């Protein structure tokens, strides 16, 4: 396989390892080679930089078709790297209904005015112009595993040799609310877009002594630290705009903070003391979308009622299409917990559902042992792309995949924290788990960085912007 990145040293493990290696200098995955992964990585290895297009691998793959469903972080990344590593003989088609991708990463900063939605929007043009990915506007309505075809919303069909599903998540009707309530009255804003803008408008309209209520569903949910950082951002905005006596009440269905516990306990108890009230272990949440009255049962079993001005229900979610009658469920691929997620073989991300040969599920829709987050979706996509290319060239997936997770959390309008971890394959249960050393990144056997920021700082906030820009370049550019 001449000039195949997998065979010439540009293995998936090296890509992931170098991504993690950036953490040693400020948690910047892919730092130093953001504009063009191959070009910069080649430079690191002493080779003359060349254009990405000319670096498509020569693998011998010819006439094979991969259909990728979903153009989010996972879908864009897997489409790009299938072409980059699989070569020009591998036909890759990306199915996605929306012209632009709107990043949920960093979207909490829209709520305090630090960003607007336009700064979070990205085109997928480079996937076509630089890598030759075929793009098809539409949504999936059915999968026929026998004929290996996908039917789209316009009734057209696509044939595949391998199918990669990266559909993301959909949100339940919960707490007495409907999808119409989310769109117009009580936005969850857990998918960035119009709801994010609506929630921003509602926060800006708050006055003295108003109450902002947020709910957090039981894990797993998308972006474990996200709800807690949102509470901090909203509280900071209320303080800096001098809204006297306002409260941010966080109703968490989990028994405790799910990520960066030390950071957020400090933020709630010190940085935003007197503004944020964190209530864990709640049950029985009900919300009136018109009056904004929120009822719940606290951890002691006592019924409570809150009159809110703004209600932000982060409701339970699931793999898109996994609901009763949904296309993922009809294909029998929602074989995870309570039919909400898709169980996969994490060596290749191929579905473990009976008869689902050649169907892979990545990103937030999969159940793999790692958190549901944008950076993780990028990592899963690369493991999946590498495995597919290996399989198509007569090999087997890497038996010991490694991945890293990294994210930043704004605590105020100028400061942030970070969290990182390294994951490795656990053959005992077939899942990815925190590495045996506690998830620390090792450089020459020595821990390079801890797994959580020791302090919240302005430097972290600055690094957060670089991390985001670099991650999005690696995903979509």
For the structure shown, list the relevant keywords.
477 residues; alpha/beta
Mean pLDDT, nearest integer?
89
What share of the residues does DSSP label as strand, in percent?
15-25%
Largest pleated sheet: 5 strands, parallel
Spatial separation of the terminal alpha carbons:
26 Å
Radius of gyration: 22 Å
What does this structure look like?
The chain is α/β, with parallel strands linked by helices. The chain has helices at 12-21, 37-44, 73-86, 125-129, 179-184, 194-204, 226-240, 261-271, 327-330, 374-392, 458-476; strands at residues 64-69, 90-95, 101-102, 121-122, 134-136, 140-144, 149-152, 157-159, 162-165, 169-171, 211-216, 247-252, 276-279, 283-287, 293-297, 303-307, 310-313, 317-319, 342-345, 350-351, 359-361, 366-367, 402-410, 416-426, 431-434, 441-443, 446-449. The strands form nine sheets. The protein has a five-stranded parallel beta sheet with strand order 5-2-1-9-21, with helices on one face. A four-stranded parallel beta sheet has the order 13-12-11-17, with helices on one face. A hairpin with a 5-residue loop joins strand 14 and strand 15. Helix 3 (73-86) runs parallel beside helix 10 (374-392) and helix 3 crosses helix 11 (458-476). The longest helix is centred in the C-terminal third of the chain and has 19 residues, at 374-392. It is globular and about 65 Å long.
